[in-house]
Every structure is written in structure tokens, then in C-alpha cells.
Amino acid sequence: MAKTIIVSNRLPISLRHRNGRFEFKPSAGGLATGLGSIYKTGENIWIGWPGNTVDDPEQRAEIILELHELKMAPVFLSKEDVEQFYEGFSNECLWPAFHYFTQYMIYNPEHWEAYVRVNQKFCEAILKRADPDDTIWVHDYQLLLLPQMLREVLPNATIAFFQHIPFPSYEILRMIPWRKQLLEGVCGADLIGFHTYDDMRHFLSAVNRITGLSNESGYLQAENRIINVDSFPMGIDYDKFAKQAKSRKTQNIVKEFKGQMIDQKLIITIDRLDYSKGIPQRLQAFNQLLKDHKELHGKVSMIMIVVPSRDKVQSYKELKEEIDLLVGRMNSDYSTLNWVPVHYFYRSFPFEELSAFYSMSDIALVTPLRDGMNLVCKEFVASKTDQSGVLILSEMAGASKELQDAVLVNPNDQQGVVDAIYEALQMKPAEQKARISSMQESLKKYDIFQWVKVFMDRIEHVKEKQEELTSK
Ligand code: GDG
């Protein structure tokens, strides 16, 4: 029987090196949970990089065995691969280009060669395990070349691709010297998915202008195949967040945390360290609010969690310094003995504590300059089980297309963000309730499990359509 293979750059595990041995902890992230029902079934498997470089053949063998138990198979990357493929081409060329940060793009042919080489490594790892009729679902921008590489060897396989980050307009994509190869690579798939309609539209227009393929109602006609392109906005594990927020454990943490911040309104912000998330701009808006509204001093604080990420890439190092400086300045300007405006944490928290932060906060300030979807805003809404709270959301996040009951802002409009925070602080409970409950309804319906189902059903549909066409 044909099986399904999930492929992503990172496997859904964290790997720790302890006492000369590796320890694995399965990831509890949304995607891993959603895809659990797929890769943990039957012969199905998840293939990807375990996240550490391992050179010792004995250790590699040990890791292969242990991952096998978890229904995963590793692709081992060398230190050079990580530097040139992951930190280099993926994160210093594609990531900035796709998020419209062209000033950070680095066009390095060695990085490009490494990108081709590592996509090839993934291809070989998959070919060792794939049968000709399998379904292979490839994830994200690190593996854009993989669908076509697989197609050449497995012409009858069903190949799908989903991109988790935005897809830029043609004018940006064309800046990349290897744009044609990238598009031809991804067009090896039968189904190509994006979070939003706009990403899909940008992709179709770039494909048309660069490769000449034209689309009809979301179908591209390739030489002897059709390729379906569509948007599939990703959801969260809604029940998990709602349940955790109500749990005794989380409510005890809320009591403890809140006890230290009596009579203060709390604004939560949570992001990976990334320039696309607009962290300095958000701090500047909060600074402006405190400057304009002295009456809010001592009455409102921001809890800012920044999760360390890509700290070897120069632009990320600089961003960290900028944030440190801004927070330092704000706190030294405004703090009193019993009030600190920004509680800044450069680390990640266990799930129960994350849930407590969501649950106890009055406002979530989610203002990326560009974001494929953004799950933090959805998790905040799901965690507000008493239906209080206000979500302030950037128009540049994919999620804003669904969460129209948020207070929507343009993150580049500092005064607009200041006004939105002020409005949120004054918002009446009845209005908060109306907005939160309406967003909860849609997030509940279209959760991560539904997202996986809709995508997998579409793969099936495209496969049938393909067969119909070839039998004609
Ligand atoms: C990419 C795209 C797209 C954060 N801090 C902690 C913690 N987190 C978890 C959140 C959330 C996740 O990290 C962050 O997800 P986002 O979607 O906000 O952002 P990216 O990492 O940039 O993800 C994005 C996503 O892919 C999915 O397609 O939405 O646009 O850029 O789930 O909860 N989790 C824990 N402790 C923390 O301190 N446990």
C-alpha cells in the first residue's frame, strides 16, 4: 500500500547532547501535532534534519535507530551545509526576500550551490525509503527544489508542497539570480499550498512571467501534468490551548504572576527573534504611548518574550542588540520602584507558562512587518476562555485575513499602533467579548486537524484529476 512521507528541514524533535549521548524530545509544536495523525500511522514517516551536526558514524547509527522508533528518519547535514544552506541561502537570501527585506539579501553563489546540494541530500534520503506511488508532502522554503528532484526519479509519485512563509511579488522574486530554478523546482509538485490568497496570486504571477506557464482557476498546465495551486490558512490545536488555559496548573501560575502585578493592564508580545516581526517598531510605539499618556504610568506593562533564533546570522545579532538597547532605555526612563514598563525575556517558556501569559494578558500586540500566518495571535484568542481581552493585529500577518475582529493596524504607522493600544485599553467588556467570541468560533472550526484534512483531501482530489486526464 502506498504510504505518505512528510518532509521538512527540521524534524519535529529537539535533540540534546548530554553525557556523550543524544537525547530526543518530540516537539509539541502545532505542525507536529497536526501531522501526528499522518506520520504516526502505518508505514508513514517524517524525514528531516535532526537539528544538530553529528559526524561520528556510531552516533549516527544510534540516532537512526532511536528516530525509527518515533517514525522519523534523519538527513544528516555537515557544519558547512548548515552554514551555507541553512544560515546562508535559506536565511540570508530566501527569508529576507520572501519577507520583503531586500536590504538583508545576500547573493552568494556558494550558498546557492549548498542549497542545491542539500536539497539533493534530502532527495536521496527520501528515495531510499519511497515507493513509486507514495505521497510526499514537502514543507517550506528551505526545500523549494525538492519537488522537481523527486519528480525526475518518481514520475508517478504524488508530491505536495506547502510554504509557511509569504510568497513575494514578482518584482522581489526576480531579484534572486536563481529565481527560475526555484520556481521550476517547486513546480515539480502536484499541489502547491500557501497560507493566503495573496501569496498564491504572487506565486502564480511569478510562475507565469518567469516560466511561461499560465493558470486557469488555480491549475497550471505543465507539459504532461496539471499542478493545483491554492491557499490553505493554517489553524492551531484550538482545544489544547483552551483546555490548558482553564487548567488548574495554568490558573495557579496566573495567580502567582498576577500577584506581582496588581492593578496593571498587561500587554503580551511573543515572537522568535526576527526582523520580520517588527519588535523594535512595537517597542517604539509603546514608548510613544507612555510619552503621550503619563496617566498610564504604573498602570500598564508589556510582557515581551523573544525566543532566541538564528543567532549566528549577522542581521539577527544586530537586531538583538537593538532590542536590548531600546528596552534598557525605556525601562531606565520610566521605571519606578514598583513598576517596570517592559518585562523582557530572551528565552522560551514551558507550555503551561506560555498559556498563563496568554490567559492573564489584557491585550496581545502582534505587529509583524510581514508574516506568513502568525500563530501567536490565534493562540492568544483560543486562550481567552472568559472572552475578555483585545487582539491588536498587523495587516501584514496572514492571520489578519481571517481575524477581521481584531483591531487591525499597519505596523509602519506608529501613531496608528499607539492609538490602537489606547483604544484597546479603553475597550468595553461587551465589545471585547463580541470580538473574541467571533474569532474563537472560526478558529475552533478551522483548527490544525481540519487544515491537515483539507490539504490531504485536496492531494487525493488532484491525484484523481491527474489520473482522469492521463487516461483520456
Ligand atoms: C513560521 C512562519 C507561520 C513562542 N514562544 C514560545 C513558544 N512559542 C511558539 C508559539 C507559536 C510558535 O512558537 C511561533 O509561531 P509563529 O507562527 O508565530 O511564527 P514562526 O516561528 O515565524 O513560524 C509563520 C508558521 O511558520 C506556521 O506556518 O505562522 O508566519 O513565519 O506556536 O506558541 N512556545 C513555547 N514557549 C515559548 O516561550 N512553548
Automatic annotation (TrEMBL):
EC number(s) per entry: 2.4.1.15
Transferase found in the keyword field: yes
Reactions catalysed, as given in the entry: D-glucose 6-phosphate + UDP-alpha-D-glucose = alpha,alpha-trehalose 6-phosphate + UDP + H(+); ADP-alpha-D-glucose + sn-glycerol 3-phosphate = 2-O-(alpha-D-glucopyranosyl)-sn-glycerol 3-phosphate + ADP + H(+)
Pathway: Glycan biosynthesis; trehalose biosynthesis; Glycan metabolism; glucosylglycerol biosynthesis
GO biological process, one term: trehalose biosynthetic process
Keywords annotated in UniProt: Glycosyltransferase, Transferase
An annotated GO cellular component: cytosol
Top-rank lineage group of the source organism: Bacteria
GO molecular function: alpha,alpha-trehalose-phosphate synthase (UDP-forming) activity; glucosylglycerol-phosphate synthase activity; trehalose-phosphatase activity
Assembly and interaction partners: Homotetramer.
Family statement: In the C-terminal section; belongs to the trehalose phosphatase family. Belongs to the glycosyltransferase 20 family.
Function, as annotated: Involved in salt tolerance by producing GG-phosphate from ADP-glucose and glycerol-3-phosphate (G3P), an intermediate in the synthesis of the osmolyte glucosylglycerol (GG).
Name of the protein described by the UniProt record: Alpha,alpha-trehalose-phosphate synthase
Taxonomic source organism: Algoriphagus zhangzhouensis
